[in-house]
Amino acid sequence: QRPTLLAPSILSADFGALADGIREVDQAGADWIHVDVMDGRFVPNITLGPAITAAAARATDRPLDVHLMIESPERYLEAFAEAGAAVLTVHVETCPHLHRTVQQIRELGVAPGVAINPATPVDVLRDIAPDLDLVLVMSVNPGFGGQSFIPASLDRIRRTRDLLTAVGSQARLEVDGGVTPDNAASVVAAGADVLVAGSAVFRHPEGAASGVAALRSAAG
Ligand code: DX5
Ligand code: ZN
Fold first, then answer.
1. What is the homologous superfamily of the domain 5-219 according to CATH?
2. What pLDDT digit, counting tens, does each position of 93-126 carry?
3. In whole angstroms, how far apart are CA 35 and each of 96, 159, 180?
4. Which ligand is nearest to the CA of 141?
5. Among 25, 60, 166, 174, which has the minimal tally of Cβ within 10 Å of its Cβ?
6. pTM for the complete prediction?
7. 20 part of the active site
8. Is 176 tagged catalytic?
9. Please, which contacts does 15-18 make with residues 24 or more away whose CB atoms are closer than 8 Å?
10. Per-domain residue ranges of the chain
């Protein structure tokens, strides 16, 4: 298994001091910066768009891992690529022409990812997995930070890992939602190699750098 990457989600950062928050987790050893884009349509919440993504890119040299929780994401791929996304992840639930959308991301020179919600069968990833650099298994229903990890996600992570192995995909397996130092080891043992964490990092009582360190030691 490859080294586990940590991707703090800026959704739980102080947006009034966003660059400082990003620099803090960057210096603490975060591998990627996870950017949660929500449209108030696909998910109930509205967060940020390309302008804030570009501001995040100016604050760090770490890859920006942009998670699009928006309807018709194909309309905005170019804008997020220009804003500095290194990874662009779309939800299978929003993409009737998923293969085309994945190719569009690839043509923009960005690494394509596909996310699935907690009730979406993992097998939907099978035919697209060979074209992906990342699959994202949601371990909460997307929309808000600070929710509890859904326990059934562990089995879904295992089945997704098996699927990637079966099709010979080198895609990374990212898990997003309710990841904490308490469950990180079991999430990694189930097959994850990228951990997203919002509140466990940015709401850590001793600060975000301590949050990254706690996750790093738990994830192994
Ligand atoms: C949920 C977002 C997550 C979220 C994670 O809709 O996609 O990235 O910010 O936050 P925590 O780690 O607090 O669950
Ligand atoms: Zn996310």
1. Aldolase class I (3.20.20.70)
2. 999 999 999 999 999 999 999 999 999 999 999 9
3. 23, 26, 18
4. 1
5. 166
6. 0.98
7. no
8. yes
9. 15/48, 15/52, 18/52, 18/55, 18/56, 18/59
10. 5-219
